[in-house]
Amino acid sequence: MQKYLSLFFSVLLFAACKQEGPPPNTIEEKKMVRLLTDLHIADGELYTITPVNDSLYKYGREKYVTLFKNYHVSEDQFKKSYRYYALQPEKIQAIYDGVSKALKAKLDSINKKPIQKNALPPQ
After folding, report:
1. Is the pLDDT confidence value at 76 over 60?
2. Residue spans of alpha helices (H) in 19-88
3. CA 18 to chain centre
4. What does the pLDDT read at residue 7?
5. Residue 28 pLDDT greater than 90, yes or no
6. Mean pLDDT of 69-96
7. Res 99: pLDDT
8. In angstroms, rounded to a whole number, what is the distance separating the alpha carbons of residues 54 and 123?
9. Which of 59, 48, 39 lies closest to 102, judged by CA?
10. Contact criterion met (CB below 8 Å) for 32 and 85
11. Which of 13, 36, 99, 119 has the fewest CB atoms within 10 Å, i.e. the most exposed one?
12. Can you tell me the distance from the alpha carbon of 36 to that of 96, in angstroms, rounded to the nearest whole number?
């Protein structure tokens, strides 16, 4: 049994090392950052809906399909790209650092108080 386990892990290691670059049709990192940012915003919007039977699936699926169409990406292409980046710790970390910065920038722009034109200056 131990012989088979060592053979399995050897083949797995060989297969993992053999891959030289991203598989074909992988979403580029910058586009992946924008797409994941919008996907996380869509996820947040889903939690504002009053839950009804299958409402999360119905509205969530619709939002995801719309996002994928806007980015000209298929669901399968997204899954494969995400799987590829998830196996590359440095790349997925860089992608989520970008997502975090983008979400923070959007939140900061929402939280900024508008300047009132007719406000009197403090005395």
Report:
1. yes
2. 29-46, 55-70, 75-86
3. 26
4. 47
5. yes
6. 94
7. 94
8. 56
9. 39
10. yes
11. 119
12. 8
